[in-house]
Amino acid sequence: MKSKQAGITLMGFLIVLAVVGFFAYMAMKLVPSYTEYAGVVKAMNQVSSEGVEGKSLDEIRRELMFKLGFQYVDDATIHPSDITMGQGAGGNQLHVSYDKQVPFIYNIDFLIHFDKSVPVQGNVAPPQ
């Protein structure tokens, strides 16, 4: 009586290993960008909960950039021009929109666009 072997061959195992390795490498490149974005959201929520009553846009930008430093957000990632104030459905909103380019393999890069708005309490001082 012959027994039939079942399982994966060495060649099949190497192919599966290559595919898993490719996606693991991709995750290692992309996860830090999303972790950094989580820090941006946390800093924005801190600024919005403190309120912006009577502060100018430059003061809000300075305060947010200071808080981003505590969240380990790189200074080259978000520029002050990426931080704006606008009107939303519930009133004033703090808006941050930026792109992050992550090198992947040779001449292949990932371009990730992040866009977040949070409502803020208070009125922004008019520009002078």
Task: Output the helix-strand order.
Answer: HHEEE
Count of distinct strands? 3
**Terminus-to-terminus distance:** 93 Å
Low-confidence spans: pLDDT under 50, at least 5 residues? none
Largest sheet: 3 strands, antiparallel
Mean pLDDT across all amino acids: 89
Roughly what percent helix? Answer: 40-55%
Provide the spatial order of strands within the biggest beta sheet: 1-2-3
Strand content: 25-35%
Q: How many domains is the backbone divided into?
A: 1
The structure class reads alpha+beta
Total count of helical runs of at least 4 residues = 2
Q: What sort of overall outline do the alpha carbons produce when their principal axes are compared?
A: elongated
Radius of gyration of CA atoms, rounded to a whole number: 23 Å
Which SSEs are present, and which pair or pack?
Elements: H1 10-50, H2 57-70, E1 83-88, E2 91-105, E3 108-119
Helix pairs in contact: 1-2
InterPro entries: DUF4845 (IPR032314)
Transmembrane segments: 6-27
Keywords: Membrane, Transmembrane, Transmembrane helix
How would you describe this protein?
The protein has one domain (10-119). It has two helices and three strands, in the order ααβββ. The chain has helices spanning 10-50, 57-70; strands at 83-88, 91-105, 108-119. A three-stranded antiparallel sheet has the order 1-2-3, covered by helices on one side. β1 (83-88) and β2 (91-105) form a beta hairpin. The radius of gyration is 23 Å and the shape is elongated. The model has no long low-confidence stretch (mean pLDDT 89). The chain crosses the membrane at residues 6-27. This is DUF4845 domain-containing protein. Keywords: Membrane, Transmembrane, Transmembrane helix.
